[in-house]
Design a protein that fits this description.
By secondary structure, the chain is mainly alpha-helical. It contains eleven helices and no strands. It is globular and about 50 Å long. The relative contact order is 0.15.
Amino acid sequence: SPWQREWLAASCGCTIADTIFNPLEVLKVRKQIAMSASSAGGGAPSATSTALARAAIAEKGFARGLWLPGLEATMYRAFSYTGFRIGLYPTVRNAIVESGTFGDADSVSCRIAAGATTGAVGSAIFNPIDVVRIRMQGANPYPSTLGAFGAIAREEGVLGLWRGIDVCMARAALLSGSQLATYDTTKRWMKDRGVMHEGPALHFTASFVSGVVAQTVTQPVDTLKTLVMANGGNQGNGQGNGGGTLATLGKLLARSGPIGLYRGYWPAMARQGPVMVIQMPIVEQFRKALGLDYF
């Protein structure tokens, strides 16, 4: 059916993009965790992203130090959650348009609502993969990705796999709503005014714009999500300092102020920009190959 092909096209495109840029995601996660540990200990400022990269490469080499950590979980996440939120967006958008709840097909609010819906629902379903991914990208990962699911369930209970689901859903709704609505709106605006025609150049341009907007909007929640999910309870990985979402937010604001919510912004932007630039164009080509219309 069309929605299954849409999901498959998005899953394939997102898996390729996220696999290529996994090193930048690893750096982003480690930077956020390092800054939290530094603030909690009251010690010297945490290392820069460049220093973290150099240390990882010096210790294990580029592949084992930066590219492979959490890569398996990243691929699982891209194929499931990311494919879900992007692939089902057109179907949900069209359903919302038909309902008339947010206006007609030209309504930006309709596109935001569609993206936020697929993002929130997808994150709720696939939250365990996100928890494992962040743990595997930290400095002290579990021995194996698949084994991490069982280890977390044993040590923290099954609900440990849904740690941070509230902030994760909020982040996903913001990300998906802002990214997909911006991509969709930018494409339509440029085509309607004859600035660019349908094709790879338009897809790359709209992707870049949507990447900048999405990362800026979601960075505060992204930081909070990483800190909450990295907290392993009794795991002993030293990647968190206890408490739920509100407790973590309170501690972060007390130590670093609001600016702390934008920790890791440049590594995140360095990743999100390139990922977004190639992610949607690849998805568009998979859609075409599977007999679907462009996004």
